Structure prediction request, 286 residues.
Amino acid sequence: MKSLRIEISYTTREYHSLNLYFNDLARIGLLSDEEEVMLCRRVREGDLSAMDRLVSANLRFVVSCAKKYDRMGVPLSDLINEGNLGLITAARKFDETLGFKFITYAVFWIRQAIMSALGEHSRMIRLPMNQVRNITVAQHQMGVLEQQLERSATMEELAHVVGITVGQMEEQLQLDRIPLSLYQTFGQQAGEKELIETVADQQLQPADYLVSGADNYLLVDSLLATLTPRERGIIESLYGINCPMESSYDVVAARFLLTSSRIKQIAAGAINKLKTLVRERGLVNA
Prediction:
């Protein structure tokens, strides 16, 4: 088996035990093909010492698999532990008479155990294993495609790589967001302010909206004041200005005792007057 060198150096106290573990793995010898077949045969016969030797010789491969899923919400040490459990499962189930190497079979169980841990512990809301797999592949491919294309990957490109629809990709990436507590504190000092204090009350209109609304009302009223009483009444009725709701041409025609065609002509003339006035005052590009 190809030798895998572990060259990770953590300087924090939290990962001191990992560095010791990596140093221990470096001292474990690898197995030849003949030794692996012999050990697998003994494992199937129930030899626990053979199980220990087979698993120990492949622990460094678990580390290389776990590193690919680091910083996804589960500590690396936990990912390695879960991968080791998958390696043990593979050792119990492997049949050396099938003619392929043990690690080729074990890689499925190692990754399955790691993915299961990610789905179980990395999110507040547990996701199905297939969605965890899709999200993990998409996150990895984001970096790969960005290097290849020299731009951010589109949702269509990610969905194509993962093998699902664009809608499914968007939905699953939305589910991967980390939920925040409304009572989570932030600021320069701990406890300075809670997130809930920054959430706007949707039932209250902001002050600038009220001011701009009042200004717009006065502006519209000053423009309508330039029309004749009949023109103003027709425009207000058609567009629901100072009225509970908009009215159709037929309703307005009945109210002013005119035909619908005449109402349209008067409205068109009044609107042209307003547009001309707006341009003259330099209010907007009418």
Observations:
- The CA atoms of residues 129 and 230 lie 69 Å apart.
- The chain is about 60% helix and 0% strand.
